[in-house]
Design brief:
The structure is a homodimer.
Chain A (H helix, E strand, L loop, with lengths): L9 H22 L5 H42 L7 H36 L1 H37 L4 H12 L1 H35 L11 H38 L7 H26 L8 H29 L5 H26 L4 H9 L4 H14 L2 H18 L8 H19 L2 H23 L4 H51 L2 E3 L5 E3 L5 H7 L7 H42 L12 H15 L1 H56 L9 H37 L1 H7 L1
Antiparallel strand pairs in A: 1-2
């Protein structure tokens, strides 16, 4: 049995710390006063709706998990086409992801009224409650993620012992627990995304546009569903997405490390495997430090608030950068300095993508202002300008990721472009660990993400409970801050998804080799000699499967991959359209049939709207979800390994670009509307305002449904390919 | 000197026939009466504006051509990094493309009033004049294309004689004359696309929306510019685009044939080289036959008109399919039956993509109807639905192209998936010749494309000249038919661009080998032995440059390629937005300052609007154009051959999908508006109508600027890479 170094225990310790602190923040939030009876009532509606949705979703997910687990079990025990641990790993991955979503959302729904109530006292109180409640989500995600990783690593190491190849089997087996996380994330992101935007678009179209009542007005029957949507889409969906990236990046880097250093002397291989886990573990402590640093004082401007959050996240980021050098040096990783710079390049890429997202979506900069200005010639030019700007905004993120890929590859292998077997392996390890670097401080970055919808809901609660002007001003500043952090959070989620997907792509090759080894299929190396697949280097592999750009299978795979991204987006856009139309009908019906709603004397049937969103989301998420799972399987069976790799690269390149485009276009339309509302180009109620509302409504599914769902697609397609590697090998 | 078979002479004969018939159709059109003085006056304005634009554009293009020719000359004579014929070939390619645009547009601008006048007599008269004038464009394009090909082939064969490698040099040198066509097409498509939509959007926004006057109303100052735009964008732009595809597909297939059959016995190599040219030549005669078959009778319904056009194009397509078997059999091409099926798969793919485009964009089918229906909840849902539907519509074209790629590859090499050197080469030849198949009847398919704007202009002329209700009804049916053919024509243009780009991609490899051979750089083969680059097989090449999907250069190239497509689209969308805004200002100014315009007593300053469109288009096309040329050069220098191939594949997969999305979304918004105008959902003037107008306006740059410009981008990036192969080799 390979000796697990003592330092490994830091990982479960970090996990337990994260979970304990999450519990601590949750408890202290719960102790705060929830406010007036009206506030408690409204929060109750939302909590009830959110939990009802989650329950319904978990039912659907449970069915899918049972089916998939049976398939994996049959593959593993019936056909020997999979490792026997896979069904169990798969289930724990999904279970922990679901648990994280449950805790995160529960906290968020308890926190919103308390944030509004705290804002009655001071801005700092409000910020602290909202942000620390967001931190619960962040800490639960990293805590459960690391726990799952640590436990499986200990268990599997116990069973597989012996030579260095056992560690490869352990890490690639663990990788498949990411499939559970992926599946859970798929439903959380797609279902949650459809839910939230069906409610939002429906509420806006009838409420704001037709009935001319403000956002979050309690007279609007869809307003509770809209607030529920913020929780299920932006808290639970985002959490599941990043849980998947977090685990995926750590696990694939571990697997790449096991292969890259399989032939190294001593326990170098083991150290390379636990290095990404350790960076993540140290990141937990630094995230905690950052969370405690976030505070502000009364009368804080938007800039002060941003600085308060920025101080926390940036301190954590700078410290993890420094800590990485120490960790890798102490672990005595070969070329530790270079690998450290790989981590830095991932961290930096995350920051740059976040900055570029802010530039393209914030109304303080030219791009969004010019979209507002386009409203002078109507809604059509707002859309044209927004789409144009969104497309141009893909440039910086793509170049950043490109540079990060090159740098992390080259730093890790000592700037070796020889494409020798070893240089590729260590280079790929560098790309993986760059993704880990980007995600290492997820504890705090996810806190800033989850903070957004809590502040948004607090604002809704304040509006619906008729709290004073001063309170609403405070919740408005908290909310505005949330919009900015949500935009940068989205950029960050996309960037990390791309790097993670790339690391998974590389791991796919390892899975295929292991699958071939398991069934005894031989491979030929570059020289043409028959070899055991598990001994094949990447050049051998590429040559054997002809994974080059003149192979029509690769080309067709790339075409299908690019198309899959568009198709998936189109389906989710269509889903939001249909679900929103149902909501519009329902709201119109209530306005018509329930007397006195608009006068404030009748009570709208909030529950019916919540139900409609829930049902629509559940129905509409099925086709895109099945598609995302089935496309890589079909391509694998029809076009083999070369086709799958083409699919993944085509899907990744097109999907990443499309995701950035959609997120940024959506974000800038949102803020272009806000810019007009701030009094520019005629302000609220003007023709320009109406034109920007059209942009904002179009942007809703862009930025909150289709765009973020692409993150899942690009990771999930790799994950499915990995899990189905056995099938691909058996069929070819 | 390789013996050129007698049958080769069919190619110049076909070319001369096409040009003669074009002249004949032009003459007979010119003999027709142009109508009332008012009609002649209006046609004069448009002709004048169109020619002024073309003159201005050719000035800019001339400068670019001089600069590029000098660069190529320096590369060829100064650094020996290019074949000495390249500068000349480049210039003739551009010159002939420009000439085709000039003739086509001249004809179109003379034909519109005559079509309107003929429609005063009967529908058949109108159709015949419009269609045969469109045929002038089609025939000039294929005639000049084949002429250029035939002359260069004869000239170069005279200078390079001897072994089989000379034919490789001849064909790859000729390929670079496609660079001239590409450059010309870039400016025609991008400049023309910006021009036409700036005028169209500007005219609509102020005319239809603000002043509430109908389309083509002479009181609208931008109406002449709008009509000019149809000519410069849809006639000249489309013509240049397909001229490039036509020449590019024939030339790259010839080059692929020269390589694939270099080692074959007898003159097999020569026969493989002239096979694509012969198929194209026979296609000319069959196109002529089809053109003569297009006629209809008075009282024809839309269905009859569609059938009339369909009869012509389908007859030509079926006959060329049959003829292909005969040609390849008589040429005794190795595996002639299989290669014939490659051609058929290209032809079929063209038909299927056209049908799918019609399904997704015509208001007779569900997708477009449902976009109309979305107008019940406003403009935002029209946009959401249109984008969703457009994205979903990418599925069939991508799968069709994918199947066509696989089939044409496998048919040509006898279903050999061994990826042996020879099987790849013959497979790639199959892909190239599939593109030739798709484009072989371009004479008539382009005629149906160019017919559209002529009919559109005829309608405009009838409206502005106050011709009777009956006449306008006839021109309306002609115009409606034009909209359908334009949509299918766009699908066809995109599909052929994708296959052509793929063939060019394969040719790029040959160019690199020749460039290495020229400067004496050695390569290693798969076994590791040093060999002369010109003897390298594709597996050698792929191995030497590590063009596999685990090379970070390839991955980064693919990312940048996908981003380039989005960036290019974003820039052209932005350009239309800016140019349209200028137009809006000008029209508003004229309404304000020129007394009596809206009452019909004052004359608008049409010329000023034409000028604005011309200037905006010329300014705005510079940045996207330079980008399209420079990106592959930079990638080549920074990332080398592997990066360029990644770039081309990423750009092709994402660009093709994006182009289909944009063209279909735009087309369906256009027809969703028409569906409402036909009296559905409240008809003209209703709130639903206004909502669909927003969709139509957004769709304008989608379908007529950004979407079609992507065709150019994906071909041009390959072409630039080919021409700059010498530079890439010198730098690496």
């Amino acid at each position: 049995m390979e000796q697990i170094p003592m330092v490994f225990w830091l990982i479960p310790i970090a996990s337990v710390c994260a979970l304990f602190m999450a519990w601590f923040f949750f408890r202290s939030m719960m102790k705060a006063d929830e406010g007036t009876p009206r506030m408690i009532e409204i929060a109750g509606y939302i909590r009830h709706g959110a939990m009802a949705y989650l329950k319904q979703q978990y039912k659907v997910v449970l069915i899918v998990f049972v089916i998939l687990a049976i398939i994996f079990a049959i593959m593993a025990y019936g056909f020997n086409a999979q490792n026997p641990w896979v069904p169990f790993a798969f289930l724990t991955g999904g279970f922990f992801s679901g648990l994280a979503g449950f805790f995160g959302m529960k906290t968020a729904t308890y926190a919103s009224a308390r944030t509004a109530n705290a804002a009655r006292h001071s801005l700092d109180h409000g910020l602290k409650i909202a942000f620390r409640s967001g931190a619960v989500m962040g800490l639960v995600v990293v805590g459960l993620g690391l726990l799952d990783i640590a436990v499986w690593f200990l268990v599997l190491n116990h069973f597989y012992n012996g030579d260095s190849s056992s560690l490869i089997i352990v890490t690639t087996t663990m990788l498949t627990f990411g499939m559970g996380a992926s599946t859970q994330a798929l439903f959380a992101r797609v279902g949650g995304g459809i839910y939230t935007k069906a409610a939002d678009v429906g509420a806006d179209l009838v409420g704001k546009v037709e009935a001319d009542i403000p956002e979050d007005d309690p007279r609007n029957p869809a307003t509770i569903a809209d607030n529920v949507g913020d929780n299920v889409g932006d808290v639970a969906g985002m959490g599941a997405d990043l849980y998947e990236s977090y685990c995926g990046s750590i696990l694939s880097t571990a697997a790449l490390g096991a292969t890259a250093f399989a032939a190294s002397a001593g326990d170098m291989q083991m150290r390379a495997v636990i290095a990404p886990m350790l960076i993540a573990a140290v990141g937990v402590f630094l995230s905690l430090l950052g969370i405690f640093m976030v505070r502000t004082k009364e009368g804080a401007t938007m800039k002060d608030l941003l600085r308060a959050l920025g101080l926390g996240t940036n301190t954590a980021a700078v410290l993890i950068a420094l800590a990485t050098f120490a960790i890798l040096y102490l672990l005595q990783i070969e070329n530790w300095l270079g690998v450290s710079f790989s981590v830095i390049s991932g961290l930096l890429a995350g920051v740059i993508i976040g900055q570029s997202t802010e530039y393209y979506t914030s109304q303080t900069y030219k791009p969004t202002k010019s979209i507002s200005e386009a409203s002078k010639t109507g809604a059509a030019t707002v859309i044209i300008k927004g789409i144009g700007t969104g497309m141009i905004s893909t440039c910086i993120p793509v170049l950043t990721i490109s540079v990060a890929i090159m740098l992390s590859y080259l730093c890790a292998n000592g700037f070796d472009m020889s494409m020798s077997a070893q240089s590729i392996q260590t280079g790929l390890y560098g790309i993986g660990i760059a993704a880990v670097g980007m995600l290492s401080t997820l504890g705090i970055t996810l806190a800033t993400d989850a903070y957004g919808p809590i502040a948004d809901n607090a604002g809704g609660n304040a509006e619906m409970s008729n709290l004073g002007e001063e309170v609403r001003e405070r919740t408005d500043s908290l909310d505005a801050l949330g919009n900015t952090t949500a935009a940068t959070g989205k950029g960050f989620a996309i960037g990390s998804a791309a790097l993670t997907a790339l690391a998974l792509l590389a791991s796919y090759i390892e899975e295929i080799k292991i699958a071939m080894h398991r069934v005894g299929t031989m491979m030929t190396n570059v020289a043409g000699d028959a070899i055991d697949a598990s001994n094949a280097t990447i050049p051998d592999f590429m040559n054997y499967f002809q994974v080059n750009l003149m192979n029509p299978k690769v080309l067709v795979g790339a075409f299908v991959g690019a198309m899959a991204a568009f198709l998936f987006c189109g389906l989710t856009m269509g889903a939001v359209g249909r679900a929103a139309a149902k909501m519009v009908e329902e709201v119109r019906r209530q306005f018509r049939e329930i007397k006195g709603i608009l006068e404030g004397t009748g009570t709208p049937d909030y529950g019916r709207c919540v139900e409609i969103s829930t049902l629509s989301a559940q129905q509409e998420m099925i086709i895109p979800s099945i598609l995302a799972i089935i496309i890589p399987i079909i391509v694998g069976v029809v076009l083999g390994v070369a086709g799958v790799l083409g699919l993944l690269v085509g899907g990744l390149a097109a999907g990443f670009t499309l995701a950035v485009f959609m997120a940024n276009a959506g974000g800038s339309w949102d803020n272009a509307k806000k810019y007009v509302e701030e009094g520019n180009f005629g302000g609220k109620g003007s023709a320009c305002h109406k034109a920007t509302i059209v942009g904002d409504t179009v942007g809703d599914p862009f930025k909150d449904t289709s765009g973020p769902s692409l993150n899942i697609l690009i990771k999930l397609m790799s994950m499915v390919s990995i899990v189905m590697a056995g099938l691909t090998v058996a069929m070819s």
